[in-house]
Each structure stands twice: as structure tokens, then as C-alpha cells.
Amino acid sequence: MILYEKIRGSIIDGWSMDEVWLAGFRSWLVDVTAVTFDVFDTALTRIVDAPVDVFAIAEATLTQKYGSAFSGYAVRREAGERKAREIAQRENRAEVTLCEIITAIVLDRPDYKFFQSEMIEAELEAERLTCFAVPEIVEAVRICTGQGIRVAFVSDMYLSADMIRTLLLSAGYDGTQPLLVSSETGCSKADGRQWSAVQALFGPDARILHIGDNEWSDVITPQQAGLKALVFPRARSDIRRGGPLTPEVLPYSCVTRDSVLRTATVRGEATATRTMSTLGASWGAMVVGSFMRWLARRAQDLGLTHLYFCARDGWLLWQAWKALDLDKKTGIPSSYLYVSRRSVNLGALTTGCRPDCLSDHALAVLGHVPRQETLRNVLNRGGLLDLPPLVEDAISVFGSLDATICGETDSAEVQACLQRHARIVCAHLRQSMTNALCYFRQEGLHEGRPGIVDIGWHASMQASIADILREGGHSPMLYGLYVGLRQAAQSNRIRAGWLEGAFSNDYMQTEHLYGLFNAVATLENALSSPEGTTLGYDWRDGRMQPVLAERCPDVCQYKELIAPFQQATLHAMERIFSGTHPLGLTGEDLTLAGGEAAISRLSLSPTTDELTVLGSIRHSPDLAHAHVATLIPELQSGAVIGSHLELWRREWAVGSALAALRRCGNPEKRELLANDIRRQCGYYDSRTLRQFT
Asked: With 80 as the cut, is the pLDDT of residue 235 above it?
């Protein structure tokens, strides 16, 4: 259960005052006779990640009191405000009131008409639960009062002045200062007309300084009206226009806001490193923590005898299992299994081949060239560069190992070449399989009821492990427990054994999983280990040892981005499970629904910093780890932004779409691009689609 009072108190107790900003503020007071303060995200701020999350709290309250009719209320509340503003715009009004918003909701849901006062009270209670006074602004008001400088509060807000004054009083302000609210004045800071009311309040000779978080309405428009303006970004929150808006997102929302506010004044640390640490303490803890809780329960229910966490994507999951001492708590031992698609799937290909003839499946895996690659990379991903007759034949066909090949014709040529050298290719695959079999026996995969833990998706590695064990005369009983499964995993069930995903399973419709699938590359990189991929196995020091490629494509990337994320994830997660998290969160708060909501919020509606940092991660999606590129190519300065974007080719479709729209300077081209993106993402939710404008 989320204890909002405890969260609010913890954030305040852990607040680090921004003395640099306060010193700058004092210097601005020379020759100033009055200071106005923005209210929300300046004088007051909330303990939730996005302002709209207040509606999710209201939904939780209404659902608990009045039942499932209020399920989905938060999204309806957001839509109701949009409808009320459309009506106000047609009537040439700058602002709406909360009552008008509630009326707009009732127009859409007539069954709510008997609950209008309850809906208003639920929202006001959510505001009271989440709002608190920003310490720097409390101090700034005290400084002004001490110097005899007049103070007023100004807000562009649908709440009434009485409602906002109640929040200010509850947070600790004395409530004696004037308060100008757009819902009552009919003017707003954003359109610039509110500043006339401010000047009228203080008189024509007043020298006024305004403080606020919004660059437009708190800096540019007051300056245009002749006021001084100083930005206060410390408590600024992100709107999060897309992704889930439900009570399930609230644990992630609160822990994210806490992490952001605690690091808001950190100076000297690289922004990217700080962003990843913040993500680890919030997103990482929620996602990995909820998965761990599910994994421990399912492993016990299935009676598993050992858990094998697969390299490289299962690295953080294994670290989390150990950090939480789950070997002891569940009675199920664990170990780290050095496997990869290359080391396992290639060896398994031999089970369908004859010594002098490659199977169609083997040819498709080894010789398929779906995108432009060099011949060298195509042969390397199958470990075939050490077969001179094959290499010489391929060079005679394509000219050189560095020749670029792609498409069905080139794939057919490669496959024909492979088939001409089937005997040595089969022997190579057979040796790979034998080495893998020895490694699996050594690790105990042929015994008991072992669990395979990995990110998942297609479960092809589990199927290949089972094939190799069967080829070695065993009857494996493998249980795959994954972060998620795609529909393609169905074709591997007969070979692989038991398959189960935490956040998605192969019987689910892809159209319902777009949030998770937008996060695939982020998850794979965030959970991965520092070592290179497993190329195969050889005998060393009396044991079958993995042969590893060089470390990940960019060692600095792991040090500066992935390691800080993982360290923060483990630290926050340990505190949650031990009951010592400062926000009062416990393991009970780490549900799969909450983890899924966290995944989708980040993948579908990232902040600018999150988009920039995660989008810069260098990722390798191919079997040989030879092709490496940033997650969002559109962030590169040389990227060409047109009116069409092939989102199905992008590792992070939403990230690429948002980056392209932000970089597109031509209004006409931008409109075409936005329409194209919405067409391709037509099955996304309406909140997320509205971002693409």
C-alpha cells in the first residue's frame, strides 16, 4: 500500500537545498519591490512523476469506494479536461474550472452524474496527499518578507483560488499573500494577459520579479510584459503525455519523482550517468524487483531444483537474485550460464543435418542476409571464417570478404556456397554441439528440473539446449522463466519444454504489447553483463570453459551508463525488499502490473533526457554482434529526417518517432511525418498517439 504521507515526509527530509539558486535569487532582489511566485512545480510540487498521476490516485480512491465503474477514470479525467478546453477555446476563454471539467466527463459518462461532488473531492484529496512546499521557495518568501518586499502567487490552473490557497496553507505557507488564478481572472500567464493583473495589483511604479519553472509562461511572457523573470527548474515535472495512466503506475511514479528531486541539484556528475542512476533507482528497481518476486514464487511452485541465469542479458537478474539472498530464501540454488544464440543455436543446427548435406533450416540460419552486411560478417556470425575452402569459394563468388551483400539473390549464393562445403561445415557445427553438450553436462542441465532464466522473446536458446541434450542421450526437463515471450515462441514449445513469461506470453496479441516491445532493446542493454558474447566452449584447466568475445562494443558505455543503472537498481531493490526504503515501499508494492506500467511509461513517453541518453546506447541486435548502432539513429546529427520513417526497422519505434519529430524543422514535412507515424502506430492507445503531432 502506498503511504503518500510517508513519501511526502521522506522527500522533504531528504531534500538538499539549492544554495546556488538561492544566492542568485538574493542578487536579483536589488531594486525589486515585489516578487510573484508560480504555484505548481514552484511554490508547491507533487510527489508523483507527472501531474496527471493525481488523476490515477483519484481513480484508485473512486474505484475503492464505488466499484469498477470508475476503472479507467484517470484517462477519462484527462480527456474531460481536453474537451472542456476545446469548449472554452470556442468561447474565447483562456481557462476552465474543475467543475467544467467534471461536467465534460459526465457528458461522456452519464452514469457519473450522481458522483460529481465525489469526483471533485477525490481529486482535491489527491492534490492534498501529493503536494508539499518547495523548501527553496519557502526560504525565498521568507527572504522577501524580511526585506519588506511584497509577495503574491500566480497560477495558470483550473482549480479555484480557495482550493489552491487551501493547498498552500496545508503545505505551510501563511496564506496571507494575494493569489491570482487563471480560472477566476480569465487571463493566463501563457497568453501574457495575467501580467496586467499582476501590475494592477502592485501598482504602476512596482518593480516586479517573477519566479517559475516554465520557460514560456514564467520567463518569456513576463519579460515581454516588462517584468523581471528568474527560472526555478528544481521542482519541474514532466507531463508524460503518453503511456499508461492507471493506479498501477503509481509506485513507479512516486519512486521516480523521489529520485529526480534528490538528484536535481547534483553538479559535476555527467548528465547521462545521473540519468541512468535515476532510472536504476526507479524504473530498474520496479521492473527487476517485480520480476524477482514473480520468479521466486514461480520457481517454488514448479518445484525447480536449480536456476540458470543466461548470459549476457540475465546478468542483472542473477545479481538481483543473489543480492536478495533468494538461493537461501527459496531453497533453490542458482548459477550463471554462459550461452548465446551463436554458441547454442549453431551447435543445435547439426541435429537436422546429414554429414554431407545441410538442412534447409541450417542454410536459412547461416546464409540469410536480410540487411546489408559484409561477407565477412555473414561468415563470422556462424564461426565459419576458420574454414579456408569455404572462405576461398565465397571470395571467388563475391570478390572479397569486405564485399557488401544483401537480399534474396545474395542469400541464395551464400547458401549454395555453404552447401558445396557441407561436409566441413557440418563437422564444424558438430564440434560446436559436442563442446556445448559437454558444458551443459558439466553445469548439470541434464539433471533434475532446471529453470532457464533470461529476457526471453522466442525461447530459441532453450529449444536448442534441449535439442543438444537430447542428441547427447538425455531427456531434459527444462523450465523457461522469462521477462517476456513473443508469439514466435509457440513454435519452440514442443522442443523447448515449459515456457512462461512475466510481462508477456506467446498467446498474447502483439497489438496489446507495444509498450513492452518498445522496451526490448533498452531491457537487453540495461540487464546485460560487461563481458562479450559467448562464442563457444573449449577445454581449459580441466573444465569446459566459455570462449568470450571482446567486451561489449563500447567499454565506456558500460562504465558510464549501464553500471550506474545496475548499481542503483540493486541498491534500491534491496531497500524495498528489506523494508528500509525511505518511501516506505515494500516487496508487496512490486507487482507485475506495476512493473509492466513502468516499462510502458518509459518506452512510450520518455522525458527529453531519457530519450537522449537511452537513445545513445550502442546496441547489437545480430547473431555475431558485428553490427552495432545507436538505439535511435534519428538522434545523430547527420541523420536525414524525411516525411516517412520505417518504424518496423527501429529498435525503439516510439523513441525514433519522437526524435524525428523534434528534429523536423519543416512544418509541412513534420505534419506528413506525424500522420505517417500515427498510421503505423494505429493500434497504440490514444494518449500515446497524441504525442505524434
From this structure: yes
